[in-house]
Amino acid sequence: xxxxxxxxxxxxxxxxxxxxxxxxxxxxxxxxxxxxxxxxxxxxxxxxxxxxxxxxxxxxxxxxxxxxxxxxxxxxxxxxxxxxxxxxxxxxxxxxxxxxxxxxxxxxxxxxxxxxxxxxxxxxxxxxxxxxxxxxxxxxxxxxxxxxxxxxxxxxxxxxxxxxxxxxxxxxxxxxxxxxxxxxxxxxxxxxxxxxxxxxxxxxxxxxxxxxxxxxxxxxxxxxxxxxxxxxxxxxxxxxxxxxxxxxxxxxxxxxxxxxxxxxxxxxxxxxxxxxxxxxxxxxxxxxxxxxxxxxxxxxxxxxxxxxxxxxxxxxxxxxxxxxxxxxxxxxxxxxxxxxxxxxxxxxxxxxxxxxxxxxxxxxxxxxxxxxxxxxxxxxxxxx
Length: 384
Ligand code: MG
What we know:
By secondary structure, the chain is mainly alpha-helical. The protein has one domain: Hypothetical protein af1432, CATH 1.10.3210. 61% of the residues lie in helices and 0% in strands. It binds magnesium ion.
């Protein structure tokens, strides 16, 4: 059995994992969480992340973040924090790489549109969809559907969910009902996600020209590090200055998160993962840094995510997703055979709900460009 002896007693350990839904023999060369990470990297949904929008639609430029590079950045930040806190790096890497697998094409605009379409059929939420991908949708193994990941990886993927959904989810839903915490690894991956997107969205925003440095200098957190960069490297400008500033911001957030969490862990003195589950969250920024992080997020909402150019793309994205869903619901015979629910169920309502979920799975799995192609195929008479 692979050993994680260098880890803190409150870290998630392969040897004491709650295990997989389908029992499998242990590997002689890899920990259970390494295996999970490897399964995620080899799955189809992971490769699709390359062509899915983070903020900028894939064809808008080659240098913007995609869901794939975003997930890699989250994994880098999460591993860095985990190593410092003697938490399980393999587990945070697995959670990071899987956390966005359920995202629709076109980012949040796509998810919001699909959620509206699915309102009468239980809704759509990317977080739940990520779990659905690893639990049932991937078809890679002879013995089971999905990737048969460990409980701790699945729990980390399910960052949040409604009480109604929690009741339907079995073991991973329990903590939302009992109001317990997830592992420290799950808690920190959540915050690594935030550190990654807040910073890379500023970088991409500047690169696209939708944000200007003048705007960013009104944000104290950016201005402070930009001034430091100017003092260290007089005359520095352009991309190099932006990169030097953003790396300082990322570092400040990570250093603060490690120090604050270390102190909290010390104060709570958890002896095991079970202790972690029964206490309040221990992975956190200091109050001062939390304020900076919130301001950063608010800045991005006001200036980038609601920029009229982003709104235009979001509006088109909503139309594409909504059109696809509606035409497929109206005429399921247009769907590839695998996605048509045969009318073996007598109950019309059940049949409708099953068909809707199947269509949601189909649309959520699409990359940006596949969704656009499918839209042309279904709505343009010139396209075959
Ligand atoms: Mg993310």
